Amino acid sequence: METNFSLNITQIPKELKLIIEILTIKNDETSHPHLNEWFKDTDWDLFIELAIHHRVFPLLSRKFKTINSTLIPPHVIQTINQTNLMNTLNMLHFSGEMEQVCKLFAGNKINLLNLKGPVLGVDLYGDVSLRSSGDLDFLISINDLDKADQLLKSHGYEKDDYIQTVLNDWKWRHHHVTYFHPKKEIKLEIHWRLNPGPGKEPSFNELWERKRVSSLTSYPVYYLGREDLFLFLVSHGARHGWSRLRWLLDINQIVGQRIDWVTLSRLLKKYQYLHVGGQALVLASQLLSTPMTQEMKKLFKGNHTKRLAQEAIYYLERMVNLHNDPVPDDVASYHKRHLYSLMSKKQKLFFILSFLYPYPEDAKTLPLPERLHFLYFLLRPFLWAWRKTKHHALS
């Protein structure tokens, strides 16, 4: 990447720029006179809203102790600190349940990997309270899904049967199923893939062989190896447009660890994520001033990664929440185009071919007995055209 390249961030809200400025303060700095100008004419309600949206309030709460507190209205500090306290209690609650789930699965001979949650708080930030989480994410082998389903239901978890499928397309179109415990008020996501398909990724057995043990609990809790975790973090963040700053802060933290960059580069190339890894590093280096070594810079050569990084700025210019429906039409349309631009040529080919595979909507349009579901392969183009024509007529 050329040294004179810089992202266009002029449309990012001033309040979010202030948040980034505070977050990038080094802990050993004792005074920050250059910050005074940043605090002028700040919309503090928007500041709080952005801090919560981007899930960075735990780190802001800690950073507030390193700067002149008179620059920030007391109610802002109080709100951020109170939100952080609730998060700390929540993460401790999650930590206890995470350990219980790990014991439960191990006792029933199901290998389980933690993807996010409390283990990332400890691994990336050194403190479970410095990273927030809305649920617990686990990865298991697809062969253990039925066993895990029975196990969780027998322990009070209820399955959210939102997945509709025909001809078992759920195995590659989707990547997790959700469970909720009404008494504990905890949501679990049981993954059988790192990301939704179609696409190639490491098998569960490969990830299990490279696993690490978390220091968070006394009972062994396993999570991804460092290079595998980097691949997961960049693919997950990119798939969501880096619409939450927390995901870039995770990248800022993990690159400071002892990563085998040769192994990582080989891994990213093998699974078609080299350009996505480059996008993450460009964003982290330019927004968070993440130091880049020569090994890291090799990942973001060429114009493609720079273009992808600039496209992601769209999500920081507005508060995009891709998790809550309905997503505004303009955002949904942009996100669809951006996801396509993130794909390698091979991934785009698989994506296009996937349209030829029957969808659940085809079975709704023309219900057939299960033994005749193979006919949807032949009927799909006509059923798709019929739905489009009908939708256009209704519009």
From TrEMBL:
What Pfam families is this protein classified in? Answer: NTP_transf_5
In terms of SUPFAM superfamilies, this protein maps to: Nucleotidyltransferase
Can you tell which superkingdom this protein's organism belongs to?
Answer: Bacteria
**InterPro entries, sorted:** NT_sf (IPR043519), NTP_transf_5 (IPR039498)
This protein is called what? Renal dipeptidase
Species in which this protein is naturally found: Neobacillus ginsengisoli
